[in-house]
Design a protein that fits this description.
single chain; alpha+beta; 7-stranded mixed sheet; two-stranded antiparallel ribbon
Length: about 150
């Protein structure tokens, strides 16, 4: 009988400890960029394959959605609009998390041309693609701070 009571007590203690330390699992592995006071939910393009694909083939992009390209080193990183179905704003961001260049209204018709910072613009470690008009609507400027979450 004592072994039975000890076993029940042990199970209760384990249950209470597990309940105390249990944290709910979140299946929302979303990433966000805060720029111009706006919280943008972003898909991450980290691999060369993902970066080449980008937003190509998608039919639309929500007002508070975007794609964040993350590069291993600083550079100018030109972007094209191959297989794009809608215009976007592109924002190049330096490793100090400040905007270094903005291309507003990048259109699919520009392909095979490419957009990117000029010789006198800063180098970027990140590029954020957002819905067209975002930069004007939120008065985004070179030098504005960006926060990654």
């Amino acid at each position: 009988m004592k072994k039975y009571v000890a076993g029940v007590v042990a199970i209760i203690v384990i249950f209470l400890l597990g309940y105390h330390f249990w944290k709910p699992v979140s299946f929302d592995d979303s990433r966000y960029v805060i720029i111009a006071g706006q919280k943008i939910k972003v898909d991450i393009a980290l691999t060369p394959k993902d970066q080449e694909q980008g937003l190509s083939g998608r039919q639309s992009l929500g007002e508070k959605e975007g794609m964040l390209f993350i590069f291993n080193s600083l550079g100018k990183y030109p972007f094209w609009m191959k297989d794009m179905n809608f215009p976007i704003d592109m924002i190049w961001i330096g490793e100090n998390e400040k905007v270094v260049y903005i291309k507003k209204n990048a259109t699919p018709e520009s392909y095979p041309g490419a957009y990117g910072p000029g010789q006198n613009d800063g180098d970027a470690k990140y590029v954020l693609e957002v819905s067209v008009g975002f930069s004007d609507k939120n008065d985004l400027k070179v030098g504005d701070e960006v926060e990654f979450r």
